[in-house]
Amino acid sequence: MTNNKNIQTLIAERAAKELTERSIVNLGIGIPTLVAKYIDSDLVQFHTENGLLGVTDVDEEQIDPNLVNAGKLPVGQAMGASFFNSADSFGMIRGGHVDVAILGVLQVDAQGRIANWAVPGKNIIGVGGAMDLLVGAKKVIVTTTHTSKDGKSKLLQECTYPITSTRSVDIIITELAVFHVKNKTLHLVELMPGVTLEQVTQHTEAAFVNDLEGSFVS
């Protein structure tokens, strides 16, 4: 799998399988925004920090320039959608009313803590609602490519970028594997189609427990 678009699709489709009906789900920037395409049920409600519950895709000919998500991308509104102040939106997050947050990351460490808001010496988009979502969302799923553009692992023993929160995420999904985070330890629970354990081990710097074989990999 060398095509980046195919990789993103694979990750997004797998993440969609983690969502259940009657959930309120916040989608971060990047791969997370693709997840909604693979949800058939109208009973999953998508939330955005800038004040909309009931986010949907929108056709190009129906784009409203005033209707965007937190990443400033055009969105549509589902039947029965609600609009509200961004302060109320963050109140939902901090009050524990978002069931699942799906976030992109720059790095994730062996404890499941993520870095996704700052690269020292570079000007990037910033933290957005990630810190609040890590504190307030009931479940946090990470969707990311397993390695950076230069081939280095994004799953590190220790993050080299500033971490976003001390909270560990719950699930990490890449194009190579799925990890669950239990007691601040990564557990390999699934290999993606066509991927071998050797490939995962080769591209993962962080230590993890191999639940497929009941062994520890460092």
UniProtKB/TrEMBL annotation:
UniProt keyword terms in alphabetical order: Transferase
Keyword Transferase attached: yes
Family: Belongs to the 3-oxoacid CoA-transferase subunit B family.
Protein name per Swiss-Prot or TrEMBL: 3-oxoacid CoA-transferase subunit B
Source species: Sporosarcina soli
